[in-house]
Design brief:
By secondary structure, the protein is α+β, with helices and mostly antiparallel strands. It has helices spanning about 25-30, 55-60, 65-75, 100-105, 145-175, 185-200, 205-235, 240-260, 265-280, 295-305, 305-310, 330-350, 385-390, 405-415; strands at about 5, 15, 45-50, 80-85, 85-90, 120-125, 290, 315, 325-330, 355-365, 370-375, 420, 435-440. A hairpin with a 2-residue loop joins β4 (about 80-85) and β5. α6 (about 185-200) runs antiparallel to α7 (about 205-235), α8 packs antiparallel against α9 and α12 (about 330-350) packs antiparallel against α14. The protein binds adenosine-5'-triphosphate (ATP) and magnesium ion.
């Protein structure tokens, strides 16, 4: 199994993250949660069928039968069982056994994640192919060796893919069945707004256009609320978290400043400190200056050269290959943050290839005649429509927050620019960059 196919008779197939060629498997794979190596172990063919249930009260109310019976059943039987040649392997999928730690992951965005009491799944293995998965003698699952770690990661990765598909369906169900009357303050205002738009009897296109915006506000409001409530429930407040992180990084930075550490460590710590500072800047009106884009690209490639090395990524600086250099009036830190988010994504998705990982950072005026920074890779490319990618909390990464592209887009808006997704061929690039292409486009040169 080297691909994940969603059961929604799957339009997507997302490759697993792979190890770079020639790297020491055990060490890297162990420390890097994202790498999934099934071929290096005797695990054999894995079949994974699962059903996911929506336990929202509004959805359950649509059921013809008794919803309590269903929720009781799921509480008792929810989980993922494992069978080998048809024989059950205990204690996977027993009540209280959350071997995939689905419960643990739910803390961040509860309504978006699939929990153990929402899934009924069966993993099937072949006895003669899965020798590296060794049953413990006390019927408490498999011995926790490398093969088992990889096996768990693969199953989690599959659940993650279903999750990101399912969130769109959930949203459609909600929209189709939400009753006209809502009590929540903002939501009921939105509903009233939507109704008065109907009364205006605008041309169909205008009506749909306006409704789309209202829907977007509605969705984003719910998501932000969801997150804030989770944080508040844990006695936390997001601004406090930000503040604490900021303080700790500040301390780290000044410690390093005083000590005699290498220039690289200092540079990296400064970068971190700047990044967090940037987050607090986002809420203020920030100072703009004349930014040298070729210098910015150099800086990005320099600061992360260790990460590129570690992930065996070959980088290409487009400016060195003849891309035009230009200046813009903007907030340098914010632009760097946006750029770093695109690069961060490229690093992750290039990790799904075992070899020949390439990243391009350059510039182009080709898309609309306006100046832009291009980030391209030779990874798997996008599996979703572009409008999904920038939605807050949309992610296909098992541990992603789904905020990177959203943040990049918001930043570009504050800088009178935009985040664009050029198609192959829209921008001239060396032909090997056939994966994702992104463009941070500015209004004009400074
Ligand atoms: N270079 C890329 N190649 C392929 N897919 C990508 C790439 N960049 C982004 N994506 C897709 O867009 C999704 C959203 O990206 P985004 O940066 O917003 O969130 P994330 O990377 O998943 O999580 P976070 O950035 O918060 O850690 C990704 O999960 C992935 O599916
Ligand atoms: Mg990201």
């Amino acid at each position: 199994m080297d691909r994940v196919e969603s059961r929604k008779e799957a339009s997507v197939s997302v490759p697993f993250p792979q190890l770079p060629e020639g790297m020491d498997d055990e060490r890297i794979a162990e420390e890097d949660e994202r790498i999934i190596l099934l071929d290096s172990h005797k695990i054999g063919l894995i079949e994974f069928d699962f059903y996911v249930f929506d336990r929202d009260r509004t959805t359950l109310a649509l059921m013809s039968g008794d919803s309590k019976t269903l929720t009781d059943f799921l509480n008792q039987n929810g989980g993922v069982r494992v069978y080998r040649d048809g024989v059950r392997v205990y204690d996977f999928g027993e009540p209280g056994n959350d071997w995939l730690d689905l419960g643990g992951r739910r803390v961040n965005v509860p309504t978006k994640r699939i929990g153990n009491n929402q899934i009924i799944g069966v993993v099937r293995l072949k006895l003669d192919q899965s020798q590296d998965l060794i049953e413990k003698t006390n019927r408490e699952g498999f011995v926790e060796n490398q093969a088992y770690v990889m096996f768990c990661r693969a199953i989690k990765f599959a659940v993650k893919q279903a999750e990101s598909e399912r969130n769109h369906d959930k949203e459609r169900i909600r929209r189709a069945y939400t009753k006209a009357k809502k009590k929540e303050p903002v939501l009921s205002d939105l509903q009233a707004l939507s109704e008065s738009i109907d009364e205006l009897q605008l041309p169909k296109d205008d009506n749909e256009h306006l409704k789309k915006f209202i829907d977007q506000i509605d969705v984003q409001y719910r998501e932000v609320l969801d997150r804030l409530l989770t944080a508040a429930g844990a006695g936390l407040n997001l601004s406090i978290i930000l503040h604490e992180v900021d303080k700790n990084i500040g301390t780290l930075y000044s410690l390093i400043e005083r000590g005699d550490q290498t220039a690289e460590v200092r540079e990296m710590a400064k970068q971190l400190s700047d990044m967090v500072d940037t987050l607090t800047w986002l809420t203020r009106q920030s100072g703009k200056s004349k930014v040298d884009i070729s210098e910015l690209i150099d800086n990005c490639l320099f600061v992360w050269r260790f990460r590129f090395d570690r992930h065996s990524i070959t980088t290409r600086n487009g400016i060195e290959m003849g891309d035009p250099s230009f200046f813009v009036r903007a907030n340098r830190r914010l632009i760097l943050t946006a750029l770093m988010n695109l690069v961060d994504n490229a690093i992750y998705w290039l990790g799904t290839k075992a070899r020949d990982r390439r990243l391009y950072i350059g510039t182009s005026f080709e898309l609309t005649g306006k100046p832009g920074i291009v980030v391209a890779d030779n990874g798997p490319g996008f599996s979703d429509p572009f409008e999904y990618l920038t939605m807050p909390f949309f992610t296909r990464k098992p541990d992603g927050m789904g905020l990177g592209l959203h943040l990049a887009e918001e930043i570009m808006k504050t800088q009178s620019g935009r985040l664009a997704f050029p198609e192959q061929g829209d921008i001239s690039l060396p032909s090997e960059f056939n994966g994702a292409i992104l463009l941070l486009e500015f209004e004009k040169e400074a």
